Structure formats: structure tokens, C-alpha cells
């Protein structure tokens, strides 16, 4: 169904329009849930300029701005007026003329998008400011969600959908000569994230606003994002993302909201006995605010993004005029590059420094802002004991872990609190979400690097580490030195660092032997005798070389950020039931034994607004019709009512029709992005996620190679009888320096180039890699998917969220018992999920079996690898990629992610998929059961749990 059909449905709702005056606590209201709209009409011959209050969302006093908002004609009609397409069109025309970003001659698509977005933003600003005012006046406890990523996607459809104005905007743009779908297509995805971490953060903000919880998000405003992905004959190519080149109509820069950030320098003790961090490099973090509207509610919360710069006096005009332009702009360049790129490559020391600068900028600017807001709300008498009763800070993974020492620094050094007071406040305020069990993602920073960049924070971390040692010693005593040593090695924040002086004699290590072997005895040894056979001149040098080889390098001194998060926060949560158990039993087992009350599970969720209501309007209409209400968009438990209609032929027919309509959109997308023609009659089999070995895109493509090889060995009739036609679609980015992941991308595209041009195979099998996968592409692929692959090595995926989106959209999953797959399978029913592979508790044993040389690979697996090596997919040498699946031990080999172990189970499960797909009635029933069983995986449910169990915040219904 075309998007415009949804708009027509949306615009039929009866709406009442109420008058708005300049008071920021009043709204323009309409609709059953009091939605708002600010009408702008423009009459060039008679322009009035009434006063309009635009509140800075930060903390500044109100400012009255004279703004030509409403014409005299519209002003007289405001009371009781229903916003219609004509008034919206006037608002869009106003912005096209009076807040232009394009030349005035034409009203083409880019200009239409910006004018439309600015028109929508007017509506958001009123509720945005009123939401802020309400929180200020009530002084409610507020949650602050800190994340390095917010993967929002396009904002226009989401905003007008949440405001209930989709149909009205579609009609208004039609009057102006444009189609809403085309205008929507002009918006670039905000390049503020990459994967599930950022998409989850954006879903959470949507749910927080929709459920009326007082909360803000904090992140960084990346100029170039991660990268824009292109695929060439050489594989993945990275180019800079250009999402800000034309400007961002949703953001408002707050030039009056900026905070100092310091790097380097030194720490000195002042005459007041306090530590002072002086010297070094100083920059400023400036706030850019983005409104986040709730669905059918007045609440509009804030996403505050930080950009970095230096004051103009740091521009060295003397050096510039002397011709040394690099020196003149060095300070500016150092500041600005902090927010250039998401996750800059950290292979170099410069890259590591830049990443640490990013993380500290996010933490310091956000905490300074939070504390300023707390002090202002407290009035003349600030009671710091109340801080945790008014503020909850959630660290989304370890990236914001510097919040802990930064909060301590501010409270102790700047606010004058004692260490004990500050530590109590910090621990009660901060909480940590763990998103991974991968050791490389549990960040460890070089102590030397951190001492150089953040000297005061290292002092604080050392003191926190010492506090932890005290706690461990108090808990376990010193009777068993081996036990105590084990606890300290596993739990300390500082790794490979000597115990503090107060604990120097705590663990007595055996002394090294002091026996000296006489030189004449040494010379009789077999090793030295063989050396003596060499010419005299080489003797000494050779012995010296042997000594050097035997020397064991000292392990690097590290700061374990995940341990810091656990120690410094009051709550630690995993993001799926199985993941939270792994967190307790393995990742942080020693901490769990010490503080079991800290550990919780909060299974992830996704917003049903974007991920069904707006991206899949056909399915949304079907659900609403059969359930009898649209309340499922907020109360997803109503989706379960679809179960009783799962065998209804009319519902099944509608489900298949909606799926085919969505598949047709993807057929066009694939043709546009890759040039390949695919059949909408084939099964759409999709795996879209970050390219990583543990997510096992390699197993998927090797399974496809096995399928292709089988096809090539059959007659046309045999192929048709055995195989269901499939379009196998991949999407996702490989990190720029992750060589093996980039090899996988190259391999997928090479297989596609061979298979897709094979006339013998035709439409029976197609392999497509969609470049530059992002939220907007996901909004097309997910509704069209019939089979979705979530095939990570069991125990390695924390949760996953795309699996939830696919299930919501009536897609059947093939996967392992990993992450949220476990709970999805429980909810949708075992018969409606294709399960294969080893379970989490078996993984360690399988790896040991491999290390012991006892693994016997399946002949089909060996056959596939040899087929790849035969060169059938082109001249590229895939020995390195195939070699990673061979051997028994060593870095880069031994099949650590167990592709070979799970391969037989995987291809056998795929045969079951083919068999099930031939029965379209049964397949459609499975599809319906997936949508019906997805109700648990709404981010609304997740946010209710965070609010109740971790943050201690309550909904605030705006007046």
C-alpha cells in the first residue's frame, strides 16, 4: 500500500483547535490527545508581527522575540479553528520565504523539505518549551541518558506521525505541487550512530517522551558520522558522511549554553588544601538541541548534542599573517576534530587520544549541564544530599564511564564536598548498562595515556581503586592470600598496577631464587657448548640475544572502565535474560558475588511507532482493523489478540498482500542501489547488522555458497524441485580498520557478482549487498523481510534489537539461542522460529575440543571452503578468510566463532525453511504469530522497567 493511503486515513480524524497565546505554558491543542499546531499564514500585502515567546531549552530567562507568526486573518480564526491543509501550506510557504536556506526563485524538493521541517518544528517548539517549563517548576526527578550514539534516522515522518498530522501535511504539500513521500526522501539520516547501541538509545527517547517521563538524552554532534559506505570491485570503501552539508532543520544551537573542557595540564595543591587542575588545553562544548516528540502527547523532550570549539582569541592572528596558517588554526583544529567522526580509528596513539577526548567531552559537558540545572532548580539553598533524589544518570555502555571520576572531580574540587559525601552521591546517581560480553568491547585504557590527558581523573580513579581494595579485603580477609590475590586481579579497576603503599605487604609473593650459577658451570651446559662452536667474535652477542629473547615484557598498565562502572554505580543491567545471566555468572561474577543487589535485567525493546506504525502502514491498518483499535501503538500487549485470527483466510490474504507491497519497494531499492533485478515472488531472506565475525555473516554466505554449489550440480528440473527461490540480502558496515570484516563484505559482493549473472540459476537465487545500510534502508527492508537471520555464536550477542523489529513486522527468524532470540522464541512459539546451533553453555567445551585437536569438520563444510578456494568467485585470494576457520589455536584462526561447528545444523535448518515456505498458508500463520508475539519487545515496556527499578522517576502529565 502506498504511504499516501496511510495519510488519507490519518487525516480523517476529527480534531479541535484551541487558541494559543504567548505564554510558554499554554498550548495549541487539537485531537483526542491534545496535539498542537502553530499556524503561520503569510499575506505579503499586510504583515502583522505579534510577539512570540521562544524559550531557550537550557536555563536562560524568557526572551520576547518579535516574529511575523500569524497574519491578522489567521489570528482572528485561531479560537476553535481546525488546522487544515490550507493553513499548513501557508506555514510551509512562510518558511520558504522568511527562513530560507535556498534561493527564492524555485520551490524544489530540497527547499520543500526544509520549509516543511521548519513548519513542523514550530509545532514542536511550543510543547518542547512547555515541557521544559513544567519540569523546572515542579522540580521533578529527571533521568539523563548518556550515549555515544543516537541513531535516529529521518525525523520528519516520525514527527508529523507523532503529532497526528501526517494526512494534513500530505495534502498541504500536494497543494504546493509536491508529494509527501518525495519530500520525506530529501531528508538525510542523522549520522549520529552506527548500530544497535544508537538505535536503542533513540527508541528509548521516543518511549520516554511518549510515556511522559522527565528525561533528556546527551550525545555528541558528529559532523561526518561513522562513514558513508560504498561497495566497489575491491569491497567496502569509506567516504565522509555529508548529512550536515545542507544544514539540519531540527536542531537549535544554544550559543548561551557552553562549558569549558580541559585536557592535559597538571594537578597542584592549593593553599586551601584542594586539588587544582591547571594548564593544558582548553576547549568549549556548545549545546545543540533536538526536540523529541512523544506520540499523541504534549510531552516533547530534548536530545542535547555537544559540538566543540575554541574562543576566537585562540586564533593566532600574528602567526596567520606571518604565513604560518597551520599554527594559527591549530587550537581550532584540535577542538573541532573531537566531533568530526564517530569512533575514529584507534590503531594509532593519536586515534586513542581522540577517542578518549570524545568520551570525556560527552561526560564533562553533560555533567556540568546537569549540575547547573540542579543548582538552579534548588534555588538559594543547594542541598547536595538531594542530588540523587533529583538526578539519575544512565551510562549506555562503557563509553560514558568517565562520568564517575568527573562527577567526583566536580563535587570535591569545585563544590567543596568531602570525598565521602561525593562518593555516596555519585554511587546513588549513576547506573550502567552493559551491552557486550566481548573482551575488546569492555574498554581498557592505557593508564599512561590517561595520566597524560586527564591527570586529575587518574588520581580520582586511583582513590576509587583503593576504596575497592579496602572493600575486598574487608569482605574476604587475608587468611587465604591466593583467594585474595585472585579477587584483586579480577576486580581491581587498575590492571597490572602495584597495590597502593597501604596494602604493599598484603600479599607476600614467593621470592625469586638468588642462587648464582658459577660461570664455569654455566659453560658446561649443552646450550652454551653449542654456542661455543661458533666463532669467538660471535659468542658474546649470541648469549646477549638469548637473554633478550627470554626477557618477559612487562604487561601494560590499564584502567578497566567496565569495572569502574560496576564499582561507581548503584545498578548494573544486561539487556536480555540470557545476557544478564552471563553478566552475573561470567563477565562480572566476582562483583555479583560481592554486590548481588546491583545486578538486574532489562530486556531491550524498540518503538512500535517507527518500527510498525510509520514504516509499515499497510500492516498497521491490518492490525488496527482486526484488533478493533489503534491503541496497540502504545499498548503493544493488544497485539497478542491477533493470535485468535491466525488461521483466518481473510487475515492471511491481507498479510500476504501487505508483505508483497513492501517487497516491491525493496525490488526498486535494490535496482537503484545495486543495479540488480530481483523477483518479488522469491523469498526475501535478510541479514542486516554491523559486520562482525561473531554475528557470523560468514556462515550465512557460506551457506549460500553451499546452496549455489548444489544447484550447479543439478539439472534445471532438480533445482526447481529442491529449492525455493530466494533473494539473500545483506547490509551493514565493517569498521574501517577491521580487516576480516571487510574481507567478508568483499566475499559477499563477489559471490553476488557470480551468482546474479549465472543464467542457469536465474531468479532461483540472488545475492545482494545493499551499501550504506542505515535506518531509512531498514525501514524498507524490515517490513519486506520474510526470513531474517540472527545467527551469532550463542552467548555473544547481548540482545539484538533488529530481531525484535523483524518479528514485529511478521518476519520469521532463523537463529541461535542467543541474546533476545531466546525470549522472542518463547513469546512467538517454538514452532514459529527456526532454531539451530550450539547453546551458550556448550561453547567453552567446543572451543576446548578445537584447541585439543579433536574437532572433526563436516565434509560439507570442507567442500564449501574448497569451492571458494577454487576461484569460482573471482581472482581474489580468500586464503586468509578461509584460513580463519582452520587450525586449532592462534589469533585469526581456529574458528573462534564456531562457524564450522554450527554449519551442519545451519544448512539442515535452511532445508526446513524451504519446506515451510512452500506451504504459504502455514508460513503466513507463522508470520502472524510473530507479530502477535512481539508485544513484549516494545521499548515502552523497557522504559517502564528502567524508570521503576533504576531511575526512580514518575510520569509527568503536562497540563
UniProtKB/TrEMBL annotation:
Recorded catalytic activity of this chain's protein: [(1->4)-alpha-D-glucosyl](n) + phosphate = [(1->4)-alpha-D-glucosyl](n-1) + alpha-D-glucose 1-phosphate
Record GO terms (molecular function): glycogen phosphorylase activity; pyridoxal phosphate binding
Protein name: Alpha-1,4 glucan phosphorylase
Family label: Belongs to the glycogen phosphorylase family.
InterPro entries from the UniProt entry: Glycg_phsphrylas, Glyco_trans_35, Pyridoxal_P_attach_site
E.C. code: 2.4.1.1
The keyword Cell division is annotated on this UniProt entry: no
One Pfam family here: Phosphorylase
Biological processes per GO annotation: glycogen catabolic process
Compositionally biased intervals (Acidic residues): 520-537
Cofactor(s) named in the record: pyridoxal 5'-phosphate
Leader sequence segment: none
SUPFAM superfamilies in alphabetical order: UDP-Glycosyltransferase/glycogen phosphorylase
The keyword Glycosyltransferase is assigned to this record: yes
Keyword line: Allosteric enzyme, Carbohydrate metabolism, Chloroplast, Glycosyltransferase, Phosphoprotein, Plastid, Pyridoxal phosphate, Transferase, Transit peptide
Stored NCBIfam families: P_ylase
Compartments, as annotated in UniProt: Plastid, Chloroplast
Function, as annotated: Allosteric enzyme that catalyzes the rate-limiting step in glycogen catabolism, the phosphorolytic cleavage of glycogen to produce glucose-1-phosphate, and plays a central role in maintaining cellular and organismal glucose homeostasis.
Region Disordered, residue ranges: 517-552
Main location: plastid
Sites bearing N6-(pyridoxal phosphate)lysine, chain numbering: 805
GO cellular component: chloroplast
Enzyme class: transferase
Domain of life: Eukaryota
Organism: Acer negundo
Amino acid at each position: 500500500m502506498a504511504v499516501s493511503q496511510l495519510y488519507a486515513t490519518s487525516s480523517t480524524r476529527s480534531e479541535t483547535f484551541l487558541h494559543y497565546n504567548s505564554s510558554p505554558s499554554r498550548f495549541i491543542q487539537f485531537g483526542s490527545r491534545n496535539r498542537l499546531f502553530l499556524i503561520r499564514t503569510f499575506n505579503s500585502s499586510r504583515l502583522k508581527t505579534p510577539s512570540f515567546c521562544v524559550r531557550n531549552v537550557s536555563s536562560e530567562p524568557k526572551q520576547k522575540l518579535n516574529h511575523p507568526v500569524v497574519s491578522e486573518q489567521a489570528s482572528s480564526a485561531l479560537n476553535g479553528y481546525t488546522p487544515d491543509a490550507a493553513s499548513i501550506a501557508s506555514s510551509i510557504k512562510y518558511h520558504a520565504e522568511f527562513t530560507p536556506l535556498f534561493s527564492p526563485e524555485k520551490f524544489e524538493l530540497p527547499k520543500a523539505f526544509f520549509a516543511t521541517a521548519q513548519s513542523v518544528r514550530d509545532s514542536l517548539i511550543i510543547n518542547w518549551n512547555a515541557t521544559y517549563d513544567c519540569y523546572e517548576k515542579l522540580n521533578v526527578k529527571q533521568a539523563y541518558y548518556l550515549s555515544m550514539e543516537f541513531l535516529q534516522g529521518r525525523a520528519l515522518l516520525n514527527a508529523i506521525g507523532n503529532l497526528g498530522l501526517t494526512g494534513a501535511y500530505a495534502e498541504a504539500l500536494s497543494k504546493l505541487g509536491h508529494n509527501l513521500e518525495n519530500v520525506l526522501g530529501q531528508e538525510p539520516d542523522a549520522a549520529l550512530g552506527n548500530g544497535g547501541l544508537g538505535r536503542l538509545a533513540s527508541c528509548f527517547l521516543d518511549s520516554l517522551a511518549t510515556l511522559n517521563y522527565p528525561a533528556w538524552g546527551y550525545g555528541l554532534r558528529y559532523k561526518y558520522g561513522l562513514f558513508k559506505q560504498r561497495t566497489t570491485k575491491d569491497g567496502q570503501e569509506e567516504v565522509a558522511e555529508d548529512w550536515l552539508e545542507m544544514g539540519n532543520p531540527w536542531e537549535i544551537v544554544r550559543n548561551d549554553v557552553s562549558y569549558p573542557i580541559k585536557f592535559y595540564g597538571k594537578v597542584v595543591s592549593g593553599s586551601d588544601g584542594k586539588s587544582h587542575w591547571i594548564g593544558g588545553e582548553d576547549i568549549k562544548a556548545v549545546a545543540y538541541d533536538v526536540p523529541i516528540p512523544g506520540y499523541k502527547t504534549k510531552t516533547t523532550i530534548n536530545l542535547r548534542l555537544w559540538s566543540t570549539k575554541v574562543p576566537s582569541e585562540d586564533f593566532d592572528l600574528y602567526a596567520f599573517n606571518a604565513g604560518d596558517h597551520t599554527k594559527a588554526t591549530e587550537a581550532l583544529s584540535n577542538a573541532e576534530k573531537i566531533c568530526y567522526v564517530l569512533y575514529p580509528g584507534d590503531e594509532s596513539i593519536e586515534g586513542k587520544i581522540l577517542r578518549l577526548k570524545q568520551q570525556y567531552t560527552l561526560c564533562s559537558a553533560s555533567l556540568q549541564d546537569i549540575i547547573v540545572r540542579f543548582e538552579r532548580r534548588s534555588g538559594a539553598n543547594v542541598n547536595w544530599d538531594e542530588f540523587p533524589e533529583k538526578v539519575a544518570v544512565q551510562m549506555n555502555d562503557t563509553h560514558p564511564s568517565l562520568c564517575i571520576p568527573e562527577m567526583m572531580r566536580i563535587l570535591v574540587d569545585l563544590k567543596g564536598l568531602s570525598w565521602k559525601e561525593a562518593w555516596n552521591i555519585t554511587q546513588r546517581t549513576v547506573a550502567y548498562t552493559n551491552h557486550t560480553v566481548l573482551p575488546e568491547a569492555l574498554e581498557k585504557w592505557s593508564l599512561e595515556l590517561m595520566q597524560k590527558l586527564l591527570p586529575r581523573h587518574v588520581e580520582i580513579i586511583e582513590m576509587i581503586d583503593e576504596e575497592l581494595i579496602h572493600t575486598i579485603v574487608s569482605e574476604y580477609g587475608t587468611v587465604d592470600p591466593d583467594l585474595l590475590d585472585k579477587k584483586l586481579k579480577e576486580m581491581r579497576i587498575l590492571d597490572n598496577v602495584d597495590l597502593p603503599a597501604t596494602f604493599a605487604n598484603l600479599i607476600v609473593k614467593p621470592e625469586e631464587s638468588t642462587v648464582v650459577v658459577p660461570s664455569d658451570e654455566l659453560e658446561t651446559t649443552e646450550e652454551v657448548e653449542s654456542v661455543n662452536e661458533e666463532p669467538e667474535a660471535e659468542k658474546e652477542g649470541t648469549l646477549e640475544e638469548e637473554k633478550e629473547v627470554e626477557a618477559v615484557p612487562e604487561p601494560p598498565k590499564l584502567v578497566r572502565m567496565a569495572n569502574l562502572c560496576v564499582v561507581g554505580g548503584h545498578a548494573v543491567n544486561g539487556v536480555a535474560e540470557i545476557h544478564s545471566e552471563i553478566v552475573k555468572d561470567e563477565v562480572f561474577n566476582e562483583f555479583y558475588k560481592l554486590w548481588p543487589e546491583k545486578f538486574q535485567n532489562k530486556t531491550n525493546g524498540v518503538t512500535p511507532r517507527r518500527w510498525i506504525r510509520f514504516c509499515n502502514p499497510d500492516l498497521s491498518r491490518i492490525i488496527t482493523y482486526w484488533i478493533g483499535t489503534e491503541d496497540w501503538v502504545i499498548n503493544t500487549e493488544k497485539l497478542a489478540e491477533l493470535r485468535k485470527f491466525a488461521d483466518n483466510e481473510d487475515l492471511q490474504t491481507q498479510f500476504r498482500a501487505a508483505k508483497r507491497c513492501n517487497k516491491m519497494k525493496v525490488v526498486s531499492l535494490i535496482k537503484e542501489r545495486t543495479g540488480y533485478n530481483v523477483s518479488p515472488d522469491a523469498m526475501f531472506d535478510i541479514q542486516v547488522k554491523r559486520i562482525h565475525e561473531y554475528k557470523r555473516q560468514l556462515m550465512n554466505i557460506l551457506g549460500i555458497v553451499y546452496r549455489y554449489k548444489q544447484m550447479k550440480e543439478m539439472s534445471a528440473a532438480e533445482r526447481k524441485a529442491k529449492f525455493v527461490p530466494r533473494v539473500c540480502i545483506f547490509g551493514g558496515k565493517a569498521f574501517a580498520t577491521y580487516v576480516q570484516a571487510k574481507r567478508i563484505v568483499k566475499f559477499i559482493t563477489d559471490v553476488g557478482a557470480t551468482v546474479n549473472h549465472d543464467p542457469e540459476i536465474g531468479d532461483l537465487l540472488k545475492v545482494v549487498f545493499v551499501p550504506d545500510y542505515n535506518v531509512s534502508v531498514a525501514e524498507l527492508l524490515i517490513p519486506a523481510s520474510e526470513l531474517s537471520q540472527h545467527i551469532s555464536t550463542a552467548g555473544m550477542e547481548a540482545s539484538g534489537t533488529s530481531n525484535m523489529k523483524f518479528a514485529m513486522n511478521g518476519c520469521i527468524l532463523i537463529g541461535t539461542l542467543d541474546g533476545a532470540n531466546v525470549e522472542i522464541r518463547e513469546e512467538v512459539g517454538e514452532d514459529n522460529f527456526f532454531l539451530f546451533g550450539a547453546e551458550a553453555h556448550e561453547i567453552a567445551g567446543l572451543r576446548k575440543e578445537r584447541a585439543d585437536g579433536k574437532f572433526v569438520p563436516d565434509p560439507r563444510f570442507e567442500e564449501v571452503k574448497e569451492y571458494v578456494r577454487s576461484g569460482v568467485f573471482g581472482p581474489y585470494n580468500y586464503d586468509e578468510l578461509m584460513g580463519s576457520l582452520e587450525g586449532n589455536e592462534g589469533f585469526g584462526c581456529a574458528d573462534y566463532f564456531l562457524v564450522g561447528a554450527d554449519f551442519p545444523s545451519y544448512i539442515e535448518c535452511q532445508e526446513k525453511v524451504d519446506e515451510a515456505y512452500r506451504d504459504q498458508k502455514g508460513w503466513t500463520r507463522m508470520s502472524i504469530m510473530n507479530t502477535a508475539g512481539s508485544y513484549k519487545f516494545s521499548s515502552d515496556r523497557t522504559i517502564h522497567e528502567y524508570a521503576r527499578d533504576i531511575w526512580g522517576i514518575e510520569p509527568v502529565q503536562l497540563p
